[in-house]
Amino acid sequence: MGKKPTPEEVAWQEAARERLRVVLERKFGSNQSRLATALGVTQALVNIVIRSVQPPTRNLMAKLGAIEGVNPHWAHTGVGVPFGPDTHGTLPISDVLLPGPPANHISLMTGERIAVAPAFDRPTCYCWRFQAGHPALAVGDWALLPGDLALLDSSPDVVSRPSAWTGKHCVIHGRCLRQSEPVYGVIATDAKGRVVFGDGQTRLRSDDFPREIYAPSTAPPSLVAKKREKRRTIRDLEERGRRIAEMDTDPWYALPEFNITDVLAVQLLLIRQ
């Protein structure tokens, strides 16, 4: 049996359900199927939430705030007007790096928006504003100024593909450096083609990339195949021995690690106002 909600949680759920009803009636003409499509959920879910069979979740309200024309701050908190101005062609601005997609962290946004080209008008994108004193401003090669905006994309299709972010400025999870806040830096390759991340102060390494795995045939091996496998095994052992020897002398192996799942967003553009 689930944990009984507190009076505060019940009050939030009732208020959130009422906000869902407002959007359903005023924007979708009480058509639950159209609202469900806009939310990316089933009509059955909308129905049971509206009828108080199931409480609304914060994730559902974040999706409500991501609907075009709906005020995301109101959808999340109930403060403000339900429907804001048309936000088509603009992106929200945050003064902090988000730990995930912008739709899931509306409360961290400033409420400001900036006009962008249609190619960047995506729900997975947002702009992060560099604050005075941020360590990134001290990296000479990056030539950043306070107030600059990094247009970041948190799309799973982007952050899960090394080819999309290698050589670019990115945001990675703070756990890599044992801190709670995400970290901004560059993911690149070193002279040996190995992946490294640098934020101007700290470097990280990553060895978490797919490698070709030799899968021998299930058929009985021929004499030629046995010789080929033996040569491959010898090469693998030699390579392993070489890497073990390198670990004692190559400083790359002493760096803290990050992996593909730590990449939160990729910078697509730098905007200077």
SSE blueprint:
Elements: H1 7-28, H2 32-39, H3 43-50, H4 58-65, H5 72-77, E1 90-94, E2 109-115, E3 125-129, E4 149-153, H6 156-159, H7 162-165, E5 168-172, E6 183-189, E7 195-198, E8 203-206, H8 223-247, E9 263-271
Parallel strand pairs: 1-3
Antiparallel strand pairs: 1-2, 3-4, 4-9, 5-6, 5-9, 6-7, 7-8
Helix pairs in contact: 2-3
Characterize the structure shown:
There is one protein chain. The chain is an alpha+beta fold and about 270 residues long. It has 3 domains: about 1-85, lambda repressor-like DNA-binding domains (434 Repressor (Amino-terminal Domain)), CATH 1.10.260; about 90-205 and about 255-273, Umud Fragment, subunit A (Ribbon); about 210-255. Helix content is about 30%, strand content about 20%. It has 8 helices and 9 strands. Strands 2-1-3-4-9-5-6-7-8 form a 9-stranded mixed beta sheet, with no helix packed on it. Strand 6 and strand 7 (about 195-200) form a beta hairpin. It is globular, with a radius of gyration of 25 Å.
